[in-house]
Every structure is written in C-alpha cells, then in structure tokens.
Amino acid sequence: MKERIKCLIIGSGPAGYTAAIYTSRANLSPVLYEGMQPGGQLTITTEVENFPGYPDGISGLEMMEDLRKQALRFGADIRRGVATACDLSKKPYTITINGEKEIETDTLIICTGATAKFLGLPDEQKYAGKGVSACATCDGFFYRKKVVAVVGGGDSACEEALYLAGLANKVYLIVRKNYLRASQIMQDRVLNHPKIETLFHTNTLGLFGEEFVEGAHLVRFKGEANEEKIDIAIDGFFLAIGHKPNSEIFKQFIPTDENGYIKTHWGTAKTIIPGIFAAGDVADPNYQQAVVAAGSGCIAAIEAERYLNNTGII
Ligand code: NDP
Fold first, then answer.
1. How much is the pLDDT for 45?
2. Residue 124 near ligand 1, beta carbon < 6 Å
3. Cβ–Cβ < 8 Å for 56, 32
C-alpha cells in the first residue's frame, strides 16, 4: 500500500536534517529517509573547524548526531532507507524506497549529496579494500607507521593528507597540475608538513602488489620532453579527487548540469517541477560546504511550506 504524506526529504546530511528541522517546526510532518550513508559525508570527516558556532571545532559525526537529534525533537519522522526510483511526472509525486515501498508526497526535498570519485583505473577495483580507499578517516587507522599516497590537489586531498600524516610515517600527495587548488591555509599546512611530500605534475598509471597494494606506478610531466615514469612504494592509496552528485534517479525528470548537479532557480532551492526542491551538494557545484548545505536545506523547507500554503494543501 502506498503511504501518502505532505513532505518527503531524501538524504541526511546538513541539508536534509536542516530541512527536517524547519519543516517539522512548520507542522508539515516531514518524513526523512537517511539514504545510503546516514549522516552523510560529514560522518566520515575528521574535525569540522569552519561551521559557525563551534569555536573549538567539532567532529563531523558528533555534529550530524546533534542535527539529527534536533530534527527528532520537533517530530521529524527519520527512517532508514534509500530512494531507488521515482515518478515525478504527475502529482502527487511517487518515490520508491528500497525498491519496494512507495511514498506519495506533495512536496519533495532532494538532499542526496555527492559520492567520492575514483580515477577509473582497473587496479582501484582490484585492490578495493586491500589498500585502496576514498576515506582517510574511515581507513587511516590501518596505516599507522606505514607509507601512503593521496591523490588530488583540493581541500579534501589536503585534509586527508594531513589526517594521514598524523598516523603514517610518510604521505605522498599526488597532484596532476603544478599547483594545489586547496585554500591557502590548507596549502600552507600541507607544504610545510615534514611527513608530506607533494609530487606535482604527477599522474597515477596503476598499482602493484601481491595481494595488497605495495606500490604505485606514476608518470611525471606526462607528454612533455622530460616525461618520467617512477614507482613509489606505498601501503595505502587514497582518492580525494572530488565528488559526483547523487542525482541519477531524478535525471529523467529534473534537468541537471553537465556534471549531474540538479539545476535550481538562482538563489532558491526550486527545481523546474513545482513542489520539488533540491538542497545541499546534489545541487551545488560551487561551494560544497556544510554551512551552505544547511542554509539551502532551510531555504528548501521554507519554500516547501510556501508552496503547500499557496496551493491550498495546508
Ligand atoms: P575539488 O574539486 O576542489 O578538487 C579536486 C582535486 O582533484 C583537484 O586538485 C583536481 O585536480 C583533482 N582531480 C580531479 N580529477 C582528477 C584525476 N582524474 N586525476 C588526478 N587528479 C584529479 O574537490 P574537493 O573534494 O577537494 O573539494 C570540493 C569542495 O569542497 C571545494 O569547494 C572545497 O573547497 C570544499 N572542501 C572544503 C573543506 C574545508 O573547508 N575544510 C574540506 C574539503 C572540501 P585539478 O586541480 O587539476 O582539476
């Protein structure tokens, strides 16, 4: 049997929980499905230093637990489950959870976030769980006093390299360009860290090792006169090269940009479909910050309430 509700939120990062806090305080009786990774990406980050209100920083896991509790306090119905399909062609909108349960809703707030990207090398599959990881905070513990490499030149890569440098004996940071894209403060920390060696102009060709990763084949200055192939001995290979928005099931109905980010009307959380909103990283190719995601979750919730009022549903 189909369940009929007024407001469905998919995703449990800062955007989803903030939308749940606002919509439950507005008496919309929201149902929130947590998705694949309850609490979202912040649950696997280390210290959150830049969310306003935490002068001493807070662990990502703790912050998400606080947001969850805050949403529960106002009556949000938070459930385990993943949205696997949808029909957004007619009202009420239908969302399928875990391939079986169907929910019909007047408003939908999509906060499905984004997932870590891989390079696409066959060796990433071959050594999955055997030295290849996209989450330093999840797996870093296994590399205490070992040698690891992190790929990427953004804030994520710098954050992962610094975290791993606190555990491992040595960290290579493999950067394909001749500069880091990360914020200045992160660049300074990485470039001045005695355990981190940054390899600029470097790409990964493959990994090697008997059963577990024992090293990486790299190429430096690819395509240039001084191109050079080198091998480094490592025990762990960490990817930090950005994220892919989790918009797949909605693409058939809602326009996305060329990278899959859901398009919203400028400055709002409105998608092309009335009553359907998108907030957080799934709709944000530019900022991808927890505080921005929380703000957009708030905007989506207020807009959902206005939509329900304007259409006479409440
Ligand atoms: P970014 O998109 O900022 O950086 C991705 C990095 O990976 C770039 O250096 C890019 O190289 C590199 N890269 C991408 N594809 C490949 C590839 N195939 N091979 C090798 N290298 C590759 O992603 P992040 O996840 O680092 O950050 C996303 C957003 O989140 C940013 O806005 C960032 O500021 C923010 N963030 C903020 C944090 C904080 O404030 N504490 C922490 C983490 C993230 P190239 O430069 O050559 O394109």
1. 73
2. no
3. no
Which residue CA neighbors atom 23 of ligand 1 most closely?
242
pLDDT band, very low/low/confident/very high, at 152 (cuts 50, 70, 90): very high
**Where do the domains of the chain lie?**
2-115+243-310, 118-239
Q: Is 99 exposed, middle or buried (0-12, 13-18, 19+ CB in 10 A)?
A: exposed
Global confidence as pTM: 0.85
In ligand 1, the atom with minimum distance to the C-alpha of 177 is 47
User: How far apart are alpha carbons 272 and 277 in whole angstroms?
Assistant: 9
Distance 152 CA to ligand 1 centre (A): 6
- 212 in Cβ contact with 228 (< 8 Å): no
Q: Answer yes or no: same fold for 2-115+243-310 and 118-239.
A: yes
251: left (phi > 0), else alpha (psi -120 to 50), else beta? alpha
Answer yes or no: is the C-beta of 156 below 6 A from any ligand 1 atom: yes
| SS3 category, 142 | helix
pLDDT tens track for 180-202? 999 999 999 999 999 999 999 99
- 91-116 pLDDT tens trace: 999 999 999 999 999 999 999 999 98
Q: Could you tell me if the CB of 136 is within 6 A of ligand 1?
A: no
- CA of 68 relative to ligand 1 center, distance in Å: 28
Residue nearest to atom 37 of ligand 1 (CA): 155
Q: Ligand 1: which atom is nearest the Cα of residue 157?
A: 26
Which residue did the predictor score with more confidence, 137 or 230? 230
Place 129 in a pLDDT band, splitting at 50, 70 and 90. Answer: confident
pLDDT of residue 285: 92
Taking the domain 118-239, which CATH number applies? 3.50.50.60
CATH fold of 2-115+243-310 reads: FAD/NAD(P)-binding domain (3.50.50)
Q: Which amino acid is at 196?
A: I
